[in-house]
From TrEMBL:
The keyword Transmembrane helix applies. Gene3D superfamilies: Immunoglobulins. It comes from Dicentrarchus labrax (European seabass). It holds the Pfam family V-set. It comes from the Eukaryota. Its main location: membrane. The chain crosses the membrane at residues 141-163. GO terms for cellular component: plasma membrane. This is Immunoglobulin domain-containing protein. The keyword Membrane applies.
Amino acid sequence: MLIILLTDTCCDRSTKVQGYETGSVSFSCPYESEYLNNIKYICRGNQPSTCLQQALITSDHKPNRQFTLTDDTASRKFTVTITGVTQRDSGSYLCGVHRNTGLDVFSAVELEVKVKQVGSFFLHDQLTILYFTKVNILNHFFFYIVILLFLSVLVTVCDVDYFTDRHLL
């Protein structure tokens, strides 16, 4: 009995790419000269069979908000740029070149997005501190406005009573 096991994964090795949250990362995907005019694309994961259908961007479509794909036919590689990356963008990606016949050609990329460290705090900690500082400033501002309104009403009421009492005597 002969059992053939087919797997839907790709690539013996992958290119490692690192970036920092809120920044941009770029990586290049090489291809052979026979595919100069073919559609290039990128997808998340490592399943070639569904990659084109789940493409994040393709060379025949305009760039979207986060992903751009530029094809440099002279050097036979296309470059993908991801802007505003977060840790959720970390993981496996496939660069694909669509072939008119047969299976598409793939190369793999492993993206790691790190939290940017600023001083002794992480960036998201500083944003939280900044947020609470703004909230505290607004709270203090509204508190002082309420106190001033209360005092102005109190002074007005007291002055009216004071003058009213003096004029009646």
